[in-house]
Amino acid sequence: MRHRRMPPAPLNLRGLVAPVFTPMRADGSLDLGRIEKQAEHLVEQEVVGVFVAGTTGEGPSLTLSERQQLAERWCAVADKRLPVIVHVGHTSVSDAKELAGLAQRAGAAAVAAVPPFYFEPRNVQDVVSCCVEIASAAPGVPFYYYHIPDNTGVRLNVMEFLPAAEARVPTLAGLKFSDDDLLLFGRCADAYGEKYDLFFGRDELLLPALALGAKAAIGTTYNFAAHLFRRMIKAFERGDMNRARRLQDQSRGLVFAMNDSGGLPAMKATMRLLGVDCGPCRLPLRDLSSDELEMLEMRLQEFLPLIRPEGSASR
């Protein structure tokens, strides 16, 4: 008698996941040799996993071959220390399926995908149909829907998506919620927080998300400021809300400083200033000028005491 294979369980991560930068050379080509140093740095930051080829990793700007190489390298380097979630979303569902299958074979812990974002799906069921196709190529690993409407333009109600998807996507494990709609996130956490992983994706709003039930988060600044955010989480967990609010205010200031200094190129440059060179960004993103880099370095001095490990940071 043939036994039906059980779908993979959600990763059930607790804490901070770093969406990693894609290391590049000056000419814009991949520089995979830098990933070992990135991984060591993230182990020191005590993140609980990595998210590869997402927004922070400039995934939509990479070729299919580059995304395959990146996933394979991260899976090899992480070596069980850091669970690897590979983002496989693409404007082409067929290419997303290929990436999902490649990620599973490389040893990824999970795959995630945005919906197609040029010809946008018209409704929840169309998004679910895309997820069915993508997830079917990686049946042995959990699948996460990546909700980031400001970038994709796909503004579906995830409270409608989750029940529609669970009926058709056996490997559905949750979602990455990169939106500032805290009311919607809270409803999701109330209804699905015990069943699915709901990764919160807005660093500057992490504290209110924790109050609404967030247990894990994926955010760019966790690449270099995880210690600051983890102190905030600890303060929240022990009920010290004055300290938690103060730390969230400091972390919000860091996020705003990064955004004011150029956004993603500024955060990638911050890694270089902190000794973990991930190289430049790729067009259409523009690297910082020498003057902008100098200004960023000056602004960063304010935050250096805050992002150091516990015991060396200012309280």
Structural topology:
Elements: E1 15-19, H1 35-45, E2 49-52, H2 64-78, E3 84-87, H3 93-106, E4 110-113, H4 124-136, E5 143-147, H5 149-152, H6 158-166, E6 172-177, H7 182-192, E7 197-200, H8 206-211, E8 216-218, H9 222-237, H10 241-260, H11 264-273, H12 290-307
Parallel strand pairs: 1-2, 1-8, 2-3, 3-4, 4-5, 5-6, 6-7, 7-8
Helix pairs in contact: 2-3, 3-4, 4-6, 9-10, 10-12, 11-12
Radius of gyration: 19 Å
The description of the largest β-sheet is:
8 strands, parallel, barrel
Unreliable segments (pLDDT under 50, ≥5 consecutive)? Answer: none
CATH fold title of the domain at 15-226: TIM Barrel
Listing every helix as H and every strand as E from the N terminus to the C terminus, the arrangement reads EHEHEHEHEHHEHEHEHHHH
Sum up the overall morphology in one term.
globular
In terms of structural class, how would the helical and strand content be classed?
alpha/beta
Strand order of the largest sheet: 1-2-3-4-5-6-7-8
What do these coordinates show?
The protein is of the alpha/beta class. It has a domain at 15-226: Aldolase class I (TIM Barrel, Alpha-Beta Barrel). It is 47% helix and 11% strand. The protein has 12 helices and 8 strands. The protein has helices spanning 35-45, 64-78, 93-106, 124-136, 149-152, 158-166, 182-192, 206-211, 222-237, 241-260, 264-273, 290-307; strands spanning 15-19, 49-52, 84-87, 110-113, 143-147, 172-177, 197-200, 216-218. The protein has an 8-stranded parallel beta barrel with strand order 1-2-3-4-5-6-7-8, surrounded by 6 helices. The longest helix is centred in the C-terminal third of the chain and has 20 residues, at 241-260. It is globular and about 50 Å long.
